[in-house]
Amino acid sequence: MTKDTSKTLPAHHACxxxxxxxxxxxxxxxxxxxxRDEQQILSDSIQNVKAELYNRNYAAAFDSxxxxxxxxxxxxxxxxxxxxxxxxxxxxxxxxxxKGTDSEVLCIGGGAGGELVSIVSMFAPSIDFTAKYSTxxxxxxxxxxxxxxxxxADWSLEIQRITKTMDKAWLFDHSSDVQIKFINQxxxxxxPEDLRLPxxxxxxxxxxxxxLFLAEKAASIRFFQKLSQECSSGCLLLIVExxxxxxxxxxxxKKFPIQFLIDTLLLGKRGQESQGAWxxxxxxxxxxxxxxxxxxxxxxxxxMRFFYRLYRKK
Length: 314
Ligand SMILES: C[S@@+](CC[C@H](N)C(=O)[O-])C[C@H]1O[C@@H](n2cnc3c(N)ncnc32)[C@H](O)[C@@H]1O
Hints:
Layout: E1 2-3, E2 8-9, H1 19-29, H2 31-35, H3 39-54, H4 58-61, H5 65-74, H6 76-89, H7 91-98, E3 102-108, H8 114-123, E4 144-150, H9 156-171, E5 178-183, H10 192-195, E6 202-206, H11 209-215, H12 217-230, E7 236-242, E8 248-251, E9 254-257, H13 258-267, E10 278-289, E11 304-313
Parallel strand pairs: 1-10, 2-10, 3-4, 3-6, 4-5, 6-7
Antiparallel strand pairs: 7-11, 8-9, 10-11
Bound molecules: S-adenosylmethionine.
């Protein structure tokens, strides 16, 4: 296991498109809401979503198109630039996105587009755009990336809008190299034929694990057991949550950091870690992402402090 000693992630990691490119993608996609006559509706919806998230009323935070779009405008850009830096920083994750010839990713709770945009912001620069037009025969292998976004809230419209902009602005005639599928389901209730866990090279649970455990503790534990039974050897699992007490959960009468419970489920009980189905390959308890002040976006771009755990299936 590599103990990550960085304190802060770079504002821009060279292997992804720049943070400004990323926020520009949101500016183009949500132009109507951000710059035109829908600005007042947007600012009211942002306040609504903020209040619901603060009170941990997660279902209510995402129960209408205006609220979901507000989240995409206000929070997804910050998440996407931070995730682009984090995914680039994690070698295994970077390889799945940029080097795999046929990779498949599952983003649980990824309906708001942050994960999607960051992944494509890394995939796009890895495409050889000249290959199709070159007169010289080259040994290039076509790359294919399948991204599955599973979310209990219906983000299909927002994902459609983001995908359309990514095709036009980033992927051009390579848009079919990335297949994006949005699945509007409760991850805890999905059957194996929909989940297709054995096909996945990377699974992400970003700011979603806590929500799962708060809503359905026993079903969440069963879900992690299912990951251990069904994921293929080599599959990566990335978990990100807020650093600090916001991510503590109560079991019985005790409160403790959620990562302790996840480690127990995936690695095995303390002292018997070698018996678990996964290896912990990289982790950090409190890492910062700070964006550059000069970034041009009409709404606040948040900094992020989080813990992460990257596991690999044995
Ligand atoms: C706090 S948001 C985080 C969104 C995104 N991952 C990010 O980092 O910006 C949590 C997401 O998980 C989704 N979610 C919560 N419970 C879920 C479940 N049981 N199945 C699928 N998605 C779920 C919510 O609808 C929401 O989109």
